[in-house]
Design brief:
alpha+beta; globular
Length: about 130
């Protein structure tokens, strides 16, 4: 199945697996999904990420994280901001703060994919891909 918006597909797969309390989920590998998974892992929203398969059939296997006995998901909400039909760009002064700094905004900059905090620290803006909290 061909997917036009790989980022929205990735976020939806993580959201659905998390709500169903699955241990892992599979996402097709692209440079963008690999970078977003790296940022989510560094920020502590997901566990280990590994690549499986070979050639064009490669997948990222993402380990989801939960807290407590009743396994409430660490990721409360994932929201796609910039999409193929409407790109959202912000300069360094306009970068959003998600829930007053509790969540993160994932930004695509000229220096790669990073969080809003990191982009603010480096003094660069870019395309706001999604919010995570």
């Amino acid at each position: 199945m061909a997917v036009n918006d790989t980022i929205a597909d990735m976020l939806t797969r993580i959201r659905n697996a998390s709500l169903a309390r699955h241990k892992t989920t599979k996402v097709p590998v692209t440079k963008m999904t690999r970078s977003i998974a790296r940022v989510l892992r560094e920020e502590g929203f997901i566990g280990e990420v590994e690549e499986t398969g070979e050639g064009i059939k490669r997948d990222l296997v993402i380990e989801l994280k939960y807290k407590g006995k009743n396994r409430t998901p660490i990721i409360t909400k994932l929201k796609r901001v910039s999409r193929p039909g409407l790109r959202v760009y912000k300069n360094r002064k306009e970068l959003p703060r998600v829930l007053g700094g509790i969540g993160i905004a994932i930004i695509s900059t000229s220096s790669g994919i990073m969080t809003d905090r990191e982009a603010r620290r480096q003094g660069i803006g870019g395309e706001v891909l999604c919010y995570v909290w």
